[in-house]
Amino acid sequence: MRSVVYIFFVLAGIVMLRPNTAYAGSSFPDLVWTQDSIIHIHPNPSNGPFEISGLDLWKGGTLKVFNSIGQEIGGIEISTVSLKIDLSGLPAGIYLMYLQIDGKKEVHRLVLK
After folding, report:
1. Residue 30 pLDDT more than 60?
2. 106: domain range?
3. Residues 106, 37 contacting (CB under 8 angstroms)
4. Under DSSP, is residue 37 helix (H, G, I), strand (E, B) or coil?
5. Per the domain annotation, does 77 fall within a domain?
6. DSSP secondary structure code for residue 91 in this structure
7. I need a surface site. Which of 22, 44, 96, 112 has the fewest CB within 10 A?
8. pLDDT tens, position by position, 73-108
9. 60 within a domain of the structure (yes/no)
10. Backbone dihedral angles phi then psi of residue 24, each to the nearest 5 degrees
11. Using CB atoms within 10 A of its CB, is residue 84 exposed (0-12), middle (13-18) or buried (19+)?
């Protein structure tokens, strides 16, 4: 199993998470965490099902979920303002939900109990 080390940058209220280049090969895209999001995720933490709302600005974009070692769990094209994803059957832990459209990126943490 390979280790992944992350470097955090904090600029104007935005936390950017990038894999350390010394650990090349991680499948994480460049990730941007933001404090000013209109995305709502509930319940979070969850036993598996998550409801995600506030996707108005993300319609036509993509949603991908990654595990804690950077492996993509799955992804979909966003076509509605709210959707449900179910991570039941996956190990408990922290997953990253990555949203992208037209060069804009945003990441949210999903906690699976």
Report:
1. no
2. 6-112
3. yes
4. coil
5. yes
6. P
7. 22
8. 999 999 999 999 999 999 999 999 999 999 899 999
9. yes
10. -60, 150
11. exposed
